[in-house]
Amino acid sequence: MADKIKTEYKAGKKVVTFPDGKVREIKKEEVQSFRQHLLNQKTNIETQLSRVDADLSEMEKSKNIIVE
Amino acid sequence: MHLNHKKSSRIVNRITEIQTDGGLPKTGQNMSWYMFDDGYYQMGFPLGGAQRFVDNGDGTVTDMATGLMWVSDPTMVGLGFTMYWYDAIDACENLNFAGHSDWRMPNIFELMSTVDHSRYDPAWDTMYFAYPPDTWTPFWSSTICAPWTDGAWCMYPYDGYKTTYGIPWDMCYVRPVRGGQA
């Protein structure tokens, strides 16, 4: 079983310690920036979902139309 | 027989049995955070610490790993705004820049090959590729989404995330490319 990554929160930062001793400090602004990016992705996915749903709805409505 | 399945054997086989002048570019991660992660191996081209991108001094950048030539700053060629997919294709095809008229819109593999995974906002080397007007709006690729042909694959400059945008509705940025194999 490999050593796990240790996470702590200090001085307003997320401090990640890797098994070999390397430490990465993540600032609040970095996480907020990534959060905004995820929200943008979420908005886009919701937009694409509504378009796909519209396609599915049209397909359902047209199921009795025979293609010759 | 079981020895052939050991990790060390697989690596030796890969190095000695496969000879190629091409391959996938490095991801850009040069820091190893965990043993055997991407930063540990740093697999890909260019090998070692060789320079990957060359600034041609005329607003274009050549990628030594892929052989592709890119427009460094789309704003410089009048493409610094978002546009529909069809308009982006036309804009690339009609572009005459740095003595070349064979510019085109990149496919999704080509577009993603510029991503440097050690960076974000934007996720590319800004020594060679200019900052986009914003990093929340994706760049178009010429590759259409197979299960839903109203969509084209795109890439967010923020982190290199691959996504789908609607061809008839959405507006994205574009970075023209030329060269490559057909």
Features:
heterodimer, A: about 70 residues, alpha+beta, 3-stranded antiparallel beta sheet, 1 helix, 3 strands, about 20% strand, elongated, B: about 180 residues, Mannose-Binding Protein A, Chain A, 2 domains, 4-stranded antiparallel beta sheet, 7 strands, about 15% helix
Commentary on this structure:
The complex is a heterodimer of chains A (68) and B (182). Chain A has a domain at 28-61. Chain A is built from one helix and three strands; from the N terminus they run E-E-E-H. In chain A, strand 1 (6-10) and strand 2 form a beta hairpin. Chain A is of the alpha+beta class. Chain A has one helix at 28-61; strands at residues 6-10, 13-17, 23-26. The N and C termini of chain A lie far apart (63 Å). Chain A has a three-stranded antiparallel sheet. The mean pLDDT of chain A is 93. Chain B is globular, with a radius of gyration of 18 Å. Chain B is built from four helices and seven strands; from the N terminus they run H-H-E-E-E-H-H-E-E-E-E. In chain B, the strands form two sheets. Chain B has a four-stranded antiparallel sheet with strand order 1-2-3-7, with no helix packed on it. Chain B has a three-stranded antiparallel sheet with strand order 4-5-6. By secondary structure, chain B is of the alpha+beta class. Chain B folds into two domains: 1-50, no CATH class; 55-178, Mannose-Binding Protein A, Chain A (Roll). Chain B has helices at residues 7-17, 38-41, 85-93, 108-112; strands at 53-55, 60-63, 69-71, 139-144, 151-155, 162-166, 177-178. The model of chain B has no long low-confidence stretch (mean pLDDT 89). Classes of the chains: A alpha+beta (68), B alpha+beta (182).
Which SSEs are present, and which pair or pack?
The complex is a heterodimer of chains A (68) and B (182).
Chain A: E1 6-10, E2 13-17, E3 23-26, H1 28-61
Antiparallel strand pairs in A: 1-2, 2-3
Chain B: H1 7-17, H2 38-41, E1 53-55, E2 60-63, E3 69-71, H3 85-93, H4 108-112, E4 139-144, E5 151-155, E6 162-166, E7 177-178
Antiparallel strand pairs in B: 1-2, 2-3, 3-7, 4-5, 5-6
